[in-house]
């Protein structure tokens, strides 16, 4: 199953924090795929930030769901958080090197539990160092043309699959959108 997520998506946090355990229980292998849902949403003129009532609802809804699921969260998390999409390109680097789940869980936890902004360079470097990575080298790679092209390629792959939001789960050509569809996606993967 492909797991398309975006560092900066409130609902992706819920899936990031529970997908590994749920997938292991279901016996489903997961491929983590960071992509720019922001670019896709801009193209589709689907901008939640243009609707303050929707943003307020999403913030409250994520807190409610996290509490119900037993996922730590601190209300009033900052948003948006990665204006240059640097944290997302670091996730691309991490995906290529095999440490994407660890990085993504840590960056989301820092954002949703401590209110660290994922796109803040100093906080990003500190987190990479905590994860045992060479922060300067990872940031340099994330800023490279190669990482930007890989990120664009993942975003293009999401477009071709008609993905319009994050998180999204894809099994074959079957699309499931939203954290509340994680279990449905895993069940589909088991059956197919």
Write the layout of secondary structure elements.
Elements lengths: L1 E4 L4 H17 L4 E4 L2 H7 L8 H18 L16 H12 L2 H15 L6 H10 L4 H8 L2 H16 L7 E4 L2 E4 L4 H10 L1
Parallel strand pairs: 1-2
Antiparallel strand pairs: 1-3, 3-4
Describe it for me?
With 192 residues, the chain is α+β, with helices and mostly antiparallel strands. It has a single domain (2-191), classed as 3-Layer(aba) Sandwich (Glutaredoxin). Helices cover 59% and strands 8% of the residues. It contains nine helices and four strands, in the order βαβαααααααββα. The protein has helices at 10-26, 37-43, 52-69, 86-97, 100-114, 121-130, 135-142, 145-160, 182-191, and strands at 2-5, 31-34, 168-171, 174-177. Helix 1 (10-26) links the parallel strand 1 (2-5) and strand 2. The longest helix is centred in the N-terminal third of the chain and has 18 residues, at 52-69.
